[in-house]
Structures are given as structure tokens and as C-alpha cells.
Amino acid sequence: MSEHDHHHDHDHDHDHDEPALDADARAEAEAEAIRHYALAQIRQYGDPALRLSAREVTEFDDDLRRLVDRMIALMHDAQGVGLAATQVGVLRRVFVFEPDDQGPRAIVNPVAVSRGGELETDDEGCLSLQGVRVPVERAIEFVLEGKDPNGEDVHHDLTGYAARVAQHEFDHLDGVMIIDRTDDEHRREALATLRPRVSLR
Ligand SMILES: [Zn+2]
């Protein structure tokens, strides 16, 4: 899942005798380059892997831990708040998410124990659907159980934004994306944004 869109359309015509601004602009350009490089390694809309259901993980080995480390690094570089294994073309039931400042979390073979509370609609983006933000209705309470990358049991009692991010990533493991969960009008707009990209591949 992508963070709220950052708007980089501010005025760059500042005076060149402001070195602090230049340093900021340089740092921003560097972060943008890193983000683009990360996005290039994430499967984009039209890629069949995004529509497949992932399989249960059976081996909690170094390969799995390397996969999780790579997914966390990609999520950070892409400035996202969540990433599912299917988005890197690995059809295993694993996702990582970081909805707050408590650090990245990884969950393997997640099971949705309950979706509770009220439903809430808010805009979501996705690292696999660049340029798209659509309203999606989610439960505000989401309880997840599964394993960590070492095979230990984990239990997440999530609310609000964290619940939203986890439900988004959980969907990816069954090939479901935000364009499937939004209304017809927003789906049409999103597909119009996405189709030209596909035809350029
Ligand atoms: Zn996504």
C-alpha cells in the first residue's frame, strides 16, 4: 500500500543563494530516484502475479527471512506502508506492513480472525497501481493471526489505519486489489489511468 500522495509540485524556482533549499531539493531528488528504482522491482497492474492466490508457507527458513527482509527494504524505498509477496512475484502467503512508528511487521500465513466495528471509507493507493487513489470501505477493527518469519505465533489486534493497511495487504494474497473494492465510477477512472501504462509495456 502506498502512502498518501506527496505533492512535489511546489515552486523550484528558488534563488540559488539558498544552499539549505538546494540540499533539500537534492535529498528529495535522491529519494525520488530510490522510490522509482524500488517501484520498478514491484509488479505493476497487468502483471498476472497480482491476480493469483498465494500458497501457504511451509518452510520457515533463511529463504523466507531473506524474502521478508527484501520486502521490508522495498516497502521503505518505495515509501509505502505495506507490501505483499505477490507484489514481488512470490506466490506465498506473506506480507509486511508499517502503518505507524512501531517499526515494520511481517506476517506469514495470516488468518483473518475477525473484522469488527464499523465500516469506514477512505482513499487508498497501492504500490502496484501507480497514480491511482480510490475510496475503499474497510472494517475499522481487524484481528489477524499467523506466524512471524521464524515460525512463532503472532497475533495483531488492529484498528483504524493499521487495520486498513493490513486488510489491503491481506487482499493481495488472494489476488484482490483496491480497484475491485471501490465503486464503479472510481474503478472506471482508475482503469483509464492504468490502461495507457499497460499498452506501453
Ligand atoms: Zn497494494
Produce the secondary structure layout.
Elements: H1 19-40, H2 62-77, E1 82-84, E2 94-97, E3 105-126, E4 129-147, E5 153-159, H3 160-172, H4 178-181, H5 184-199
Antiparallel strand pairs: 1-2, 2-3, 3-4, 4-5
The chain binds zinc ion.
Overview of the molecule:
The protein has 201 residues and is of the alpha+beta class. The protein has a single domain, classed as Peptide deformylase (Peptide Deformylase, Alpha-Beta Complex). It has five helices and five strands; from the N terminus they run H-H-E-E-E-E-E-H-H-H. Strands 1-2-3-4-5 form a five-stranded antiparallel β-sheet. A hairpin with a 7-residue loop joins strand 2 (94-97) and strand 3. It starts with 18 loop residues before the first helix and ends with a helix. The mean pLDDT is 92. Zinc ion is lined by residues 1, 126-128, 168, 172. Zinc ion (ZN) is lined by residues 1, 126-128, 168, 172.
Backbone CA Rg: 18 Å
- Note the total helix count: 5
Q: Mean pLDDT, nearest integer?
A: 92
Total number of beta strands: 5
* Strand order in the largest sheet: 1-2-3-4-5
Low-confidence stretches: none
Order of helices and strands: HHEEEEEHHH
Distance between the termini: 22 Å
Q: Roughly what percent helix? A: 25-40%
Count of domain modules = 1
Largest sheet: 5 strands, antiparallel
Using the alpha-carbon principal axes, give the shape: globular
Classification by helices and strands: alpha+beta
CATH-defined fold name: Peptide Deformylase
CATH class: Alpha Beta
